[in-house]
């Protein structure tokens, strides 16, 4: 299978002094196949979000090689921790934004935005302003905005961290259903063991100081997943493995 993302020896140092500053990432080697769902799991401060931003091209790597196939076609979507919606615009106006910025005529952009909102379960809320939406609904709008461009690569930076557990589970299910239906490549940053195992086909566990990939854990549970999987012995066993790997990563020392 073709690779969607390939990182070789990627490091990121903040600050102009090559011998000083903060070394956020060091020696990252990571390959992500097309159609894979990868979670980057690690404690706060281990460089997960920095790595995601390097992949997105939002910040440059200090060294190493970064290859993102979707970047050559402008087919990368990004979902931030905060929905970052325009408060004066309707839900459909927010979702239309990337299309309008890329020059798509309104007559084409509006039905595509409506379709994206329907994909995340927000049919009927097209004209609602963000202030009238719950936190979970605002995050759905943010996801729809990332999906409206029909990306080959979707990057998600802890989008569900601030939500209550019931809403988080529901959005996890919705995201997994969308991924199963369209098989875009997905990379999710999370500090939740349970979320990483539930959503992913593979979990990459990161260690800090500097950030690096400590272990990788394949998740071969079949799709679709749901309430039964959340209470299964298989899920519990995989969560234990991921939890132990995370504990080892947190205790690891840089070489």
List keywords for this structure.
6-stranded mixed sheet, 2 domains, alpha/beta, 9 strands, globular, 25% strand, Rossmann fold, 37% helix, 255 residues, 3-stranded antiparallel sheet
Shape: globular
As residue ranges, the low-confidence spans are none
Q: What proportion strand?
A: 15-25%
Percent in helix: 25-40%
CATH class bucket of the largest domain: Alpha Beta
Using only C-alpha atoms, the radius of gyration works out to 18 Å
Describe the structure.
With 255 residues, the protein is of the alpha/beta class. It folds into 2 domains: 1-75 and 154-168 and 181-255, P-loop containing nucleotide triphosphate hydrolases (Rossmann fold); 85-150, no CATH class. It contains 8 helices and 9 strands. It has helices spanning 48-56, 91-101, 106-119, 135-147, 165-182, 193-199, 227-230, 233-251; strands at 3-14, 22-33, 37-41, 63-68, 76-79, 153-157, 185-190, 202-207, 212-218. The strands form 2 sheets. Strands 5-6-7-3-8-9 form a 6-stranded mixed sheet, sandwiched between helices. The protein has a 3-stranded antiparallel sheet with strand order 2-1-4, covered by helices on one side. Helix 2 (91-101) packs across helix 3 (106-119) and helix 6 (193-199) crosses helix 8 (233-251). It is globular. The mean pLDDT is 93.
SSE layout:
Blueprint: E1 3-14, E2 22-33, E3 37-41, H1 48-56, E4 63-68, E5 76-79, H2 91-101, H3 106-119, H4 135-147, E6 153-157, H5 165-182, E7 185-190, H6 193-199, E8 202-207, E9 212-218, H7 227-230, H8 233-251
Helix pairs in contact: 2-3, 2-4, 3-4, 6-8
